[in-house]
Amino acid sequence: MEFVERRSGISLWRQIADQIRIAISNGEFKETNMLPGELALAKRFEVNRHTVRSAIASLAREGVVQVEQGRGTFIARHTRLQYPIGRRTRFSAGLAGQTRTLSGTVRESRIEEAPVNVADALALDAGAPVLRLVRVSMADGVPLSRAISWFDAARFPDFAERLEKQRSITAVLKSFGVDDYVRISTRISAHHADPQTLEDLRLSPGAIVLRTEAINAEVDGRRVEYSNTYFAADRIELDIDHGTASAGM
Amino acid sequence: MEFVERRSGISLWRQIADQIRIAISNGEFKETNMLPGELALAKRFEVNRHTVRSAIASLAREGVVQVEQGRGTFIARHTRLQYPIGRRTRFSAGLAGQTRTLSGTVRESRIEEAPVNVADALALDAGAPVLRLVRVSMADGVPLSRAISWFDAARFPDFAERLEKQRSITAVLKSFGVDDYVRISTRISAHHADPQTLEDLRLSPGAIVLRTEAINAEVDGRRVEYSNTYFAADRIELDIDHGTASAGM
DNA sequence: TATGATTTGTACGTATGTATC
DNA sequence: AGATACATACGTACAAATCAT
């Protein structure tokens, strides 16, 4: 007996779909790997069976469940990828072993004048030329994240060109003589996805993104990268690395 | 000219409200501290003025904006609280200085048999008696978070009674001889709020919560607390502390 | 003080989507 | 599948409040 709210601007089938999604990710049905019957769900949410059917149909469209006539509704996937965040955060290495394939494509790349927040983060003067890079990552054919990064264009002149030939940001930075860099700041928040992110991550309206706002710097403190990354929240969770028990020794 | 999707299970006014919320938190209107007029917004989202009015009405109910006839619609709050997360995460201390008042109330408190995930986190045997505590925190009269914590009931027998007299978890633990404890693990994810959390945090359906799943332990490694905390995502962001630049020395 | 321009508030009618029975 | 009720969305018109001139 759970609650759905009418006149909330969100249709009942949508609220029920969201709650079933939550229940799945909480592992509620992992013993049988299938949902209860439509009548049982209708009773649980106190709605008509047809409303539950609409909810399940939308989950099936998303690929969260698979419906088989006469047998039941089966859960397709129920675990999130784990993305480790620490002083030594590296995108590909962090997800290694959790996916079969992992790729990244550059969506936009242009030089612009640094807005104040970017200039602050990179310790540049506002208006200084910076490279703005938008990349979308895919794991096993499904979009995972949309990242907007900024780099000092004066220090890394042909960054974009080099990225076409190299595999990763880390490799390109190395070619510029940046042998090592560490995460010095990460802020995490959650939002409804904006329209552009919805499209790039193939999400439907109302979907959630986890946003990380991060600064990477060399060990001497020189700022290297400022990034805003939007992760599809139902596909990933962030695992914070607090360092060793002996306080970083 | 932005996009709203029809027949998506989320009403247009709701999608528009969400997008305006995003725009506000991106600082889009911070020069004037007010929204564009209803007609301008209707043009931007390509909907009727009444649809925009519904969106604004819901934002006004939430306290995000204030409407004044003949003058315009003003933004009430546009910054999120910053909650620092590091090895030494403490709830009250972390938000000190950002709010006028900060309080926490216990919603539930009972002994139960540890489910497997709780037993794992506290390094107990499954089924061992644990204290399950649900607390809701409020900042300046607005709910911030709902936290479910588990403690070893054998080691901390009258924890709940002591908490009624003490101010904080830290104080109660101290009374049990736990002089210090550190965060050894934090996992962060984002979800649609479940019905109970919606109610406790006074959110409307479709609202987002940031979830932190955390383990606190003494410096010798003995587990002290396992917690799942749900933060109202539009009221807070998490600020990860990566330790000192010299790698913890 | 008066007037017009701009902004939000209210009212009516119609069409379509959602949910129940 | 058909009937009913209510929510959502659009269109139009006008009222009320605010502000600049």
Overall description:
The structure is a homodimer of 249-residue chains. By secondary structure, chain A is of the alpha+beta class. Chain A has 2 domains: 12-75, Winged helix-like DNA-binding domain superfamily/Winged helix DNA-binding domain (Arc Repressor Mutant, subunit A, Orthogonal Bundle), CATH 1.10.10.10; 81-247, Chorismate lyase (3-Layer(aba) Sandwich), CATH 3.40.1410. Chain A contains 8 helices and 10 strands. The first copy, chain A, has helices at residues 12-25, 38-45, 49-62, 91-95, 116-122, 159-165, 169-175, 195-200; strands at 65-68, 72-75, 81-85, 102-113, 129-139, 142-152, 182-192, 208-217, 223-232, 236-240. In chain A, the strands form 3 sheets. A 6-stranded antiparallel beta sheet of chain A has the order 4-5-6-9-8-7. In chain A, strands 1-2 form a two-stranded antiparallel ribbon. In chain A, helix 1 (12-25) packs across helix 3 (49-62) and helix 2 (38-45) crosses helix 3. Chain A starts with 11 loop residues before the first helix and ends in a 9-residue tail after the last strand. Chains A and B meet through helix 1, strand 7, strand 8 and strand 10 of A and helix 1, strand 7, strand 8 and strand 10 of B. Chain B binds a DNA duplex (21 and 21 nucleotides) through residues 6-7, 11-13, 37-39, 47-51, 53-54, 56, 67-73.
